[in-house]
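Many introductory courses stop at the sequence. We go one step further.
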Amino acid sequence: ENSLLGVALLVFICPVILLVRDKQIFREEEKREKQQMVQDYPEILNKLTLLMGAGVNLRKAMERIGKDYKDERAEREKRKAYEMILEICQEMDRGVSEKRAYEKLGEKCGVFYYKTLSALLVQHLQKGSRDMGRILEEEAGKAQEIRRQQARILGEQASAKLLIPMIMMLLVVFIILIVPAWITFTI
């Protein structure tokens, strides 16, 4: 009876543990993707500002950013923000309006910064702002500051993770120094 009870518990507990683990892995992956998207935001804004400042219209600038990423994709890991840009460019090629595609970019990314960018791009399409270059430059400056803050946070997290191994190494050094001295005094 005890072995049957143990098997029954394993049959019910293992799937629950696996589900919890899968959810945790999914949350960590989602968190990593959002962090990656925040890191890519200043780079995307800088490229967009540079291309629009050079006289390229908004749609062609987005297509160029997507094309450049697609060309480099084999050499580097997938970046979700750039994948979203490629996706909206493909949707525009299939006939979706630019306005709707940029709105979808903000919705799909799920990160506040991309929602802001989406709103700026839609506003530019509707009103045709002459100051779009200046607005994008200001937003790029804010994004650089956000990137610096995120780098600072990641640095602090890394130093906290290194603290335990450093303490362990200090203990080893103490043992290496104290044990021979203790042996010498006891003899």
